Amino acid sequence: MVKRALITGISGQDGAYLAKFLLEKQYKVYGAVRRTSAASLHRLDELKIKDQVHLIDFDLMEHGNIIEIIRSLHPHEIYNLAAQSFVSASFTQPIYTAEVDGLAVTRMLEAVRLFAPEARFYQASTSEMFGKVQSIPQNEETPFYPRSPYGVAKLYAHWIVKNYRESFGLFTCSGLLFNHESPLRGREFVTRKITLGLANIRAGLQKTIALGNLDAKRDWGFAGDYIEGMWLMLQKPHGDDFVLATNTAFSVRDFVDCAGKSLDFDIQWHGEGVEERGIDRKSGNTIVTVSKDLFRPAEVDLLIGDFKKAKQDLGWEPKTSFPRLVSMMTGADYDRVTSDRVFF
Ligand code: NAP
Ligand code: GDD
Fold first, then answer.
1. In 3D, which of 19, 98, 24, 107 has the Cα closest to residue 60?
2. pTM over 0.90
3. Is CB count within 10 Å lower at the N or C end of the chain?
């Protein structure tokens, strides 16, 4: 039997990698895409799968649209990856973020309950829900303390997913995923901003990168490893929640150092706070500055995940090391900026 999978957010980083993974497993993949004035399918193009997925118009703000799609497709598996995923933007668009990242998940679940109750449902939960962390490292039992409207909205979604599992017996899973990156990461996230910025500087196309909090620490893994974990969750006999992480943490400054090395910069740090500068020892040029405008109203200082449960129950563990991830991203960006191709 050919399985049907519905992926919301297929145009995003995880959606694109997951679509490729499911196509390789012979799934029929339906990708939900919202209408925008400019096509945003460049990641599917880059992975060379745009022609293999069935794209359908979809917006998480439209209840009727959600019901109609789930009723007519009757998918075996639903991966709800669509979201306003940029934490920083959630401080200026808290209501929209609450709608799309929080309430819309209830809309999805209602449609599943009414029209496809046997479907298996994956929700993209997040380490951002741990926020001001209550213990180190964080696992499935760690209490939540979100620090952004994004984290608060995702926490609502996380609990409603659990609630529909317990109340109505739906097969629902939440993946508590720590930061995962790739060459397909959006440019607004710090890792890609750094790799693209440094690649541009190396190619002589840009002079400096302005960053915010250099001390924030994240547990950074490779998106390509994490999407397999999402799929494994839906293959278990019962829905459950799992942390996917690497159990290592690096600061934003560490990320800059590592990306710099792979592009042959030797960055020395001088000054403190907003006066801090990253200077390339070889050229003497300042290549990183700090801008107070890029700090957040409330910060998540440290995330580090414990993936023991995923390893035990799913046989999942991360395969890509931090240095490998960083060099994969800088390499891809350097190739892009030094080629004639249009890229995103
Ligand atoms: P992403 O690249 O920002 O992709 C987000 C996707 O959601 C895009 O396809 C976007 O469509 C779509 N979307 C946004 N608003 C929508 C709406 N109103 N209706 C329909 N689609 C909408 O995010 P990602 O990194 O792949 O992350 C996937 C999911 O995992 C997100 O829910 C994110 O919050 C969560 N998550 C990510 C990480 C991480 O480190 N990457 C960690 C934990 C959890 P457009 O292309 O039209 O913008
Ligand atoms: N974006 C950005 N831009 N972040 C910066 C910058 C900058 O110029 N300078 C420092 N940072 C710091 C942020 O303050 C934050 O502490 C850290 O870098 C990571 O920021 P992002 O890359 O924007 O990611 P995030 O951790 O806030 O959110 C990502 O991971 C979550 C999982 O923990 C997103 O993918 C979320 O959707 C995801 O849920």
1. 107
2. yes
3. N
